[in-house]
Each structure stands twice: as C-alpha cells, then as structure tokens.
TrEMBL record:
This is ABC transporter ATP-binding protein. PANTHER family: ALIPHATIC SULFONATES IMPORT ATP-BINDING PROTEIN SSUB, TAURINE IMPORT ATP-BINDING PROTEIN-RELATED. One of its GO terms (molecular function) is ATP hydrolysis activity. The keyword Transport applies. The keyword ATP-binding applies. InterPro entries: AAA+_ATPase, ABC_transporter-like_ATP-bd, ABC_transporter-like_CS, ABC_transporter_ATP-bind, P-loop_NTPase. It holds the Pfam family ABC_tran. Keywords: ATP-binding, Nucleotide-binding, Transport. Coiled coil: none annotated. The lineage of its organism: Archaea, Methanobacteriati, Methanobacteriota, Stenosarchaea group, Halobacteria. Residues 8-236 form the ABC transporter domain.
Amino acid sequence: MDGRIGISHLEKVYGEGSERTKAIDDLSFDIDGGEFTSVVGPSGCGKSTLLYIIAGFLDITNGTVSVDGTPIDGPGTDRGVVFQDYALFPWRTVKENVLYGLEEAGVPDEEADATAQRFIDMMDLSGFENKYPKELSGGMKQRVALARTLAYDPKILLMDEPFGALDQPLRETLQDQLIDIWGDLDKTVVFITHDVEEAVYLSERVMIMTRHPGTKKTVTEVDLDRSRPREDIVTSEEFTRKKNEVWRSLREETKSEVQP
Ligand SMILES: Nc1ncnc2c1ncn2[C@@H]1O[C@H](COP(=O)(O)OP(=O)(O)OP(=O)(O)O)[C@@H](O)[C@H]1O
C-alpha cells in the first residue's frame, strides 16, 4: 500500500554556534503504508520536529526521510497535517475551509463542492456549512480541520496532538471517529500525543522517544481488536499491559531528566 514512510539516520540540528541545538539524533524508523503509529516522549524530545520534517516544513541536517521511496522535498498533497490549534481560516466558513485544499489543487467547482460536502457529512458537520470558526466549539473546529485535510485525500495524515485541547468526552468521540476514518480510508497516520492511553487506544505501534536529543528508544506493538466497544478495550488485560509497557519506557526517560 502507498504511504510508506522511511526514516534513516535522521539528524536535525537547529541554529549555529552557541545557539546550536541537536533536536533529533540518528533516528531510524520505517512506517508501513496504512499503518497507525503514535509517537510519545518527554517534552522537547523532538516529536513536533520529526512530524514537521515528514510534512516537508523543515530541512534535515543528516540522514534521509522518504515517502514511498522518494526523499521528501518540501510539503506535498500526499501528506496532510492536523494541528492542535486547528489552524482554520477565520474569514472562511466551514464549507469554504473544507474547500480550501480542493481549490488549491484546481479541482473543478462542482466536484470540489460534492467532495467537501461528503467530508462535512462524514465529520458530522452537516447544517454548519455556513458558520464561521468563531461560532464553533473546539471539537467542531477540529472536525472541520480534519475534513479540510481529508478532502484532498492525502495518503499520510500527520497529527500533532490534535485532541490535546479538548475535554475528555470530546476527545474520546474524536478518537473513535479517527479510528473509523482510518479503517475506511486506508491512511497512514503519524499521531503525536502526550497521552499514553490515547496512544495505545489508537495505534498499531507506539514509538517512545528518548529525551533531548530525541531518538527512537523503544517501540511497542499494539494488536487490539478495535471492533469492540471502548469500555471493553480499555478494561482489557492486553490494553493495561501495553499501557504499562509504554509508561515504563517513558518514565525512564522522564526520570533521567531530573538525575545529575
Ligand atoms: N525553531 C527552533 N529553533 C531552535 N530550536 C528549536 C526550534 N524548534 C524546536 N527547537 C528545539 O528542538 C527541541 C525539540 O523540540 P520539539 O518542539 O520538536 O519537541 P517536542 O517533543 O515536540 O516538544 P513538546 O512535547 O514540548 O511539544 C527542543 O529542545 C526545542 O527547544
């Protein structure tokens, strides 16, 4: 399946001289097309840096990052990014926001309109097409952002703590919606989160990064039957075991931060 991400000996250094910071050091990791991977790690370990490198927003210092075998050279419509703060256009309505990527891609009006409406419906936003972002709740704004990204059909979804600003019930609703979308649309998803439970609930693999400079520390494989209701999943023995495994690895990194 398309949407494979290859990361080989990635190094990212910001700044020069006394301002020099090595954010990522010798990180190698491959993600299969259609796979859902979460990335967790201590604050400042380079999670967002990694995501923005895959997005093509940032240059790399050393190593290679490729999509389907082709080294990344700037942003592209094969990758869509969803941010924590939604990044909607405040002067555009819901429909106009969702139409944005389709307009940029030169999709004819009628087809763009039908596609936008399909994703508006999929994200339960029907009836809100003509509202402006300021008239929406946080959860609705994030659903608009997701619809906007999905509408131009990227193979890869890059999500930077997308539900971090939402309260728990909303977060859970959006997590379940994302699992459905992932199942229906065959996307590769790279999902950054601080929430271990969220990472294990959503992903097939969780990569835990070392603290600054960040590299791959451990990878936990999660093979949960996600067709069950949430209550059954989160109370299952396997879910608890995987959560503890990720926690243990993460705690080691956070602990080493405060040791001399
Ligand atoms: N534009 C920049 N210029 C210089 N240093 C930067 C820049 N962006 C990030 N850094 C540094 O790179 C390191 C990694 O930052 P990054 O934001 O990728 O980490 P993170 O794991 O996403 O953090 P958090 O979990 O707190 O969001 C940090 O030390 C940060 O200070």
